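Here comes a specimen:
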Amino acid sequence: MRNLNRKEKGGGVMKASAIAHSNIAFIKYWGRSLGRDPSLNIPSNDNVSMTKLGMGDQRLQTHTTIEFSDAYKEDIAILEGEVLTGRKLQRVLGVVNPLRKYAGIDYKFKMESKNDFPTQAGLASSASGFAALAIATVNALNLRLSKEEISTYARLGSGSAARSIHGGFVWWHKGNSHESSFAEQICGPDEFEIRAVIAIIHEGKKDVTSDVGHESAWTSPLNKARVEISQKQADEIRKAILDDNFTRVGQMVEKNCLYMHSIMMTSEPPLFYWFPETLRVIKTIQRMRKEGLECYFTIDAGPNVHCLCRPEDMNELQKLLEKMEGVTKIIPVKPADDSYVTKEHLF
């Protein structure tokens, strides 16, 4: 990596855009590591995810453009047309400021970001959003960082964003410091045969954000056991992915999902992200499996259900979920590629 001097800044303007995809955690991140600076978003356990690409109109991605210029008098961040202030702006600055300092510049910036899917609905918009922001910022500042290094900066905005830097199947090492808490790819998107159908139950914003929910995880008396089990499961699911063992992956994904939601429901105050329709989808998945269609469920911090299946079973699963009362729409997804830089700017 190299710092920039004023001659390299191209007349005082530096600009880049990036696209990143959301991810679904197989082994969940819920609650920050005790005794660590909470602003670092260091997780309590290693965790594993799949970066996902929507196969229809919604590709489950965030497109972000950032520009540093001596013409700006203040930092400006815009998400879906909303000028961010307060806590939302501070999260953006949490990613940009360390990189701006690293590059040795003091220019202000303008950032604009758009999702092609609902924000704060339990579909990991913060993961794709802060991953895209980190990639765009690094490239605008012309910093030479590895994807693993970039993941540590994405993590400062949203922990799960560390995983969205990579495509395919991703391991987030919990670490014990900024440098050691990073994400790396387990294998590429085509190296493990799996698909998912997301059953959308509610696209509105959830009452309690994941960022707030992380703060209450350790108020649950069950969380210590969940962390210990999840750490073991992370190792086991990594092996199952590399062995292309869909059944084993599905079994562990379901269990780990239920472990996380048990923490939410037993924290202070209790958090209930599920809707009645969420449980209906869970029961339907269990019934389908008994009837011979091998599929599994997992749910992040929201009411919508990711239903995992083999590629050859995707159409059948999709048709069954589309008919369900309470499911407003479905989004078929497959493993996505890495986040990337684009020449298409939003402004």
Q: What stands out?
A: Residues 223-242 form the longest helix (20 residues).
